[in-house]
Each structure stands twice: as structure tokens, then as C-alpha cells.
Amino acid sequence: MTTSINEPHTKPNCANFSSGPCAKYPNWDISDLNLDSLGRSHRSNLGKERLNSVIEQTREILNIPADYKIGIVPASDTGAFEMSLWSVLNNDIGVDVYAWETFGFGWANDVKNHLKISDVNIVKAQYGKLPDLIHNENRDLVFTYNGTTSGVKLADTNWIKKDRTGLTICDATSAIFVEDLDWEKLDITTWSWQKALGGEGAHGIIIMSPRAVARLEKEGCDNRPLPKIFRMTKDNKLIDGIFKGITINTPSMLCVEDLLACYRWIKKIGGRSALQKRSYKNLEVVANWVEKHDWVEFLASNEKNRSSTAMCLTLKDSELVNPLCELLEQKKVAYDIRAHCDAPKGIRIWGGPTVESKDIEVLTDWITWAYHKLQQK
Ligand SMILES: Cc1ncc(COP(=O)(O)O)c(C=O)c1O
For 265-278, how does the pLDDT look when each residue is reduced to its tens digit (9 = 90+)? Predict the structure, then answer.
């Protein structure tokens, strides 16, 4: 038996539910951006001051320890993460890679088939699950905090040992600003502006512990040929300027100003804890809705590992996914909610802090309506 449901009257204020680039913060306006650094050299005092302000505000908002280095690097999260892998991994120490969706699988492929590290242990889980997490403190550890294409996140990093000789290298692009990151457990952390805060593409951030810096400066570590765009050391010494706003190559000052506008918004709404609250509320809205319907389910099987940013869902009738996404796009109520092409068929709703929970609530009414309407066809 199929039920007929009336078309909802209300539309979301913002129909952007993409998992990257993600929605801008509410009421974002181009006039929020300072434009005086545009058309100026990024090496001018003004340019350097703005870039350094990104670094210092990142430290303040995320509560990053004073002895950790923060750098703005090219090529978004992929650039930040791959420059980390290529710079610190080597054959002196084995590498464990934990992966449970496409981005983690990609990093595993980098380590094994491109970097050709000889001693690699890849631990995988299928979409919706986490592998058993066992930290070997004498090996490097590569992982993604929040798997954007399966909606499975780590609940914490308690399983990582404080005393370790290996480095921990974490792709945190879908977790940062929302999850409580324990900096003591993270030697290298990366993220992209386009996702966490609805910033712009092109740039990434790399955050490094003193131990990570010591590895970079270790004798022999910079013997591997590296393109200039990835190089963080010169003559076995860290290029310190990168961590003070003197970027490796030319950044987009428009993107920089956009991120600074995001930071002003964050401070206005109450800092990182407000961001976490907003995103967790989004998950609560979706979880309450899923609870009420037997035709929609979280892909993440364990509740405590459900991502509040990338909320991945499967539909009982998976054949309805494509027409449903098309219908909601035509109705201008939801853009880009189809699951990633590498993931099981389903829908994915971005619930990061820039998305309003009211909009998610309205969206769920539309999904319910569309599902029933399409079932009747
Ligand atoms: C977990 C994760 N890692 C890496 C990336 C790649 O990010 P970017 O395109 O910003 O380099 C993404 C993008 O969605 C992601 O979700």
C-alpha cells in the first residue's frame, strides 16, 4: 500500500546540501568580504598580515597548541594530505592505513602503489562500517576522521596511544570544527576551506605537531624528489615562512578574505562549540525523521559513528534515488544530495555547521513527499 502525501508548502531558505563545496554560512553576502587585499601582492605587508591572520585565528578557534605549526597550502585537502604523505612517509618505518570509504581507500593507494612504501598494512571496512581500530605505536598511522562518502566517523581517538614513535596523519576535512579533536593524538591534520566552513576551493590547511616537524627535519627525509609545490623543508630544515603566511606559491586573496569572513561569523555565533551544536542538531533532525520511516536508513550501522556532517542514507527502494534527487532539484528544494559515485546508492545530506537545522527539517518533509509520490508511479 502506498500513501499519498501533500506537497509541502515551505521550501528551505537555502537548498544547498552539497558535501563540498558546502553551503556558505547563513546570510553570507559577498559584501561581507574585505576587498582591499585583492589586486595586491600576497607578499605585501597587507597580504602577509591577512594570511597570517588565517593562521592565528585557526589556532584560536580550534584551540591548537602553541607549539603546533599551521600552514596554508595549495590544492585543498588533497594537496595538504598528499604533501604530508609524500614528505614524511619513508621505508624506515612501517605504515598502517585505516580506510572505510573512497577517500581513505585513495590514501591507501597513494601509500602502497605510488609512494611504494615497502611495509604497508591496509585495514579496510566496507561502506557503513569501521574496521577494528588497533594502534601500533611503532608504526605510522594514516586515517580519515570522518568518511564523507559513507557518513562513518570516528567517535574519538582514545584508541591512539599518547606515547608513540610513529606519526599519526589524519585527513580531518569533514570532521574539523565539529568533532573534538585531541591534538595530543594528532601529528599531522589536514582540511580544506571548501568543506568545513563553506569556504572556497583551492586551499588547504596543514597542522603539524613538533614530532611531525622533527620527522621532516630528520636526516635523509628530504632526499626524495618532490615538486616545489609540496616541499616543506630546505636543507633538512623546515621552511618556517610557510607557517607564518608566506605561502609556497600565489594564493587567491579572494578565498583568503572569504575564509576570514567565515571566521568573523564563527566568532559572532560563539566559537567552535556553537559550530558543533549546529551540526549535531542537524544530525538529530535527520535521526528523528529516519526513526519515523521504515524506508530510509543510515548507512552507518553504529549510531556512535554516525557523521553529523556527511549524513549518508539508503532508501528501501534504491531505484527511486535518482528520480527523487532530480525531482527535488527541479523543485529547487535540494541540490546535490545524491550519494558519492563510489558509495552505495543513496542520498547524502550535508549537515555541517553552515547548514540551518530548519532547512534540513523542511528538506526531510520534501524527501518524504517525493518518495511517496515516486512510489505511486
Ligand atoms: C574525507 C575527504 N578527504 C579529501 C577530500 C578531497 O578534498 P578536496 O577536494 O578539498 O581536496 C574530500 C572531499 O570531499 C573528503 O571528503
Answer: 999 999 999 999 99
